[in-house]
Amino acid sequence: MNSKNRQKQIVEMFDNIAPTYDKTNRLLSMGIDISWRKSACDETYKRYKKDIDLIVDVACGTGDMMGYWKKQANKINRKIGKLVGVDPSCEMIKVAKKKFVQFEFIIGDAGTIPLKDKSADILSISYGIRNVIERKDAFKEFARVLKTGGYLVILEFTKDDKKGFFFKIKEFYINKLLPKIGGFISKNRDAYEYLPNSIDGFLTAKMIEKELDDTGFSTEFVKSFSMNISTLIIAKKR
Ligand SMILES: C[S@@+](CC[C@H](N)C(=O)[O-])C[C@H]1O[C@@H](n2cnc3c(N)ncnc32)[C@H](O)[C@@H]1O
To answer: Which domains does the chain have, with CATH numbers?
Structure first.
C-alpha cells in the first residue's frame, strides 16, 4: 500500500472511533494522560515568556489538548490570542467542535497546515505524530508555521529502548489488555490492535530529537512519564 492510501486508511479509522474516542481514552489511560498534558503546557509556558498570539494543536482529535492549553494559561493569568485545532478526521473535529465552541478548528493534514509562515508561538501535537506517515514533511511544516523562538511540543507513546520488569508489565498492558478493552468499548478491535503496532513501529525519543534537529529545532526538554509509556519533547524553533 502506498503512503497516501495508508494515511487515508488511518484517518478513516479515527473517523470510525471518534464517537467513543474520549470514553475509551480516559478508561485506557485511567486518567493519567491528564497530568501528562498539564505538564506539557506548564513546562512550555515556563519557557515561552512572550505574548501568545496563536497556539496551534495539530492532530487535535477531540480537542482535549487545546482545553489544557487554555486551562493552564488561565491558572497563571496568561492570555492566548487564538487557539486553533487542525485534524484531517472530520468526525474527530465534529466531536471537538461540540466540546469547545470557543476554539477554531480546521480540517487539514500535518503536512499542509493552512496557516501563515511564522504565525504560531506554540505548536503542539499530542499522540498524533505516530499517525503521520510523512513525518519529516510534517516537521518541516511545523518549522514553517512557528515563529523563530517558538515552541514545538510533542507528547507521544515512544518506543522503549530499556528492558526489564516494568517493561514487561507495560508490554503486557499495551499489547494484550489494551486491544481487548479498547476493542470492546469502540466495537473496533482493529483500531486498538493498531495502537500497539504503531508504537512498536515508531521511534525512540532520541530518534525524534535527531529528526527535529535536522529540521531546525533545538530540543530543550525531554521527560518520560509512567514507566516510559509517554514522552514529552519540547523543542525551540531556531
Ligand atoms: C490518537 S489521536 C490523538 C488526538 C488528540 N491529539 C489527543 O491527544 O487526544 C490521533 C489523531 O491524529 C490524527 N491524524 C492522523 N493522521 C494525521 C495527519 N496526517 N495529520 C494530522 N493529524 C492526523 C487523527 O485523525 C487523530 O485525530
So the answer is: 3-7+30-162+203-237 (3.40.50.150)
**Element holding 127 (H helix, E strand):** none
Q: What is the pTM of this model?
A: 0.94
Measured in angstroms, how far is the CA atom of residue 74 from the centroid of ligand 1? 25
What does DSSP say about strands 230-237 and 146-156: parallel, antiparallel, or unpaired? Answer: antiparallel
Q: What is the pLDDT of residues 20-38, one digit of tens each?
A: 999 998 888 888 899 999 9
SS3 110: coil
Cβ–Cβ < 8 Å for 152, 234: yes
Residue with cell 487545546: 66
Ligand 1 probe mutation, 89, 107, 186, most atoms within 8 A of CB: 89
Q: Which residues pair with 217 in a beta bridge?
A: 237
Ligand 1 environment, Cβ below 6 A: 7, 10-11, 14, 58-61, 64-65, 87-89, 92, 109-110, 126-128, 131-132
Ligand 1 center from residue 62 Cα (angstroms):
9
Cα 173 to Cα 24, 68, 137, 197: the distances in Å are 15, 26, 32, 13
